[in-house]
Amino acid sequence: MNLNEIIDIQKEFDSKHKGHFDWAQKIDDNNIDILEYLLLCLIGEFGEATNLIKKVIRGDYSLCDVKPELSEEIADIFIYVIKLAYQLDIDLEKQFLEKVDKNKERFVHFEKNEDDK
After folding, report:
1. Terminal Cα distance for the chain, rounded
2. Alpha helices of the chain — where are they, by DSSP H?
3. pLDDT by residue (tens digit) across 15-51?
4. I need a surface site. Which of 1, 33, 48, 76 has the fewest CB within 10 A?
5. What digits encode the pLDDT tens for the residues 49-62?
6. What is the percent of the chain with per-residue pLDDT over 90, rounded to a whole number?
7. 115 has a pLDDT exceeding 70
8. What does the CA dihedral 91, 9, 17, 73 come to, rounded to 10 degrees?
9. Other CB atoms closer than 10 Å to residue 92's CB: what's the count?
């Protein structure tokens, strides 16, 4: 399955979701509150994942203990990222590849050259 197929699955799910607004609508200047809400949701999911790791660091659980819950929270984060991308008409694959290229140039000083080996 590729990213576009995953996005299509999410779009279909969103189009059937009922609530106070259309969960699949495109976001523009006329409904910026939807963007605000989705970002709030995304931050909430990051918070839930972070809280799990806090408990691991504190010693309450091992990473192995929380991994199933952490996996679910990371999937929730992924869902909101996908939603933001398609609702804002962002080509996520293209943006990812461009960012990887930028990072390769930005972090080139961390790579060892042949003389350092």
Report:
1. 39
2. 3-16, 32-58, 63-87, 92-106
3. 998 888 889 999 999 999 999 999 999 999 999 999 9
4. 1
5. 999 999 999 999 99
6. 84
7. no
8. -80
9. 17
Q: Which two tokens stand for residue 112?
A: 């060892």
Counting Cβ atoms within 10 Å, is residue 53 exposed (0-12), middle (13-18) or buried (19+)?
A: middle
- Tell me the per-residue pLDDT of 76-90, one tens digit each, with 9 for 90 and over: 999 999 999 999 999
Q: Are 42 and 50 in contact (CB under 8 A)?
A: no
Residue 19's SS3 state is: coil
DSSP state of 107: T
b/e for 27-38, b at 16 or more Cβ within 10 A? beeeeeebeeeb
Question: In this structure, are residues 52 and 73 in contact, taking their beta carbons and an 8 Å threshold?
Answer: yes
Q: Name all domains of the chain by residue range, CATH numbers in brackets.
A: 3-94 (1.10.287)
Query: Structure pTM?
Result: 0.86
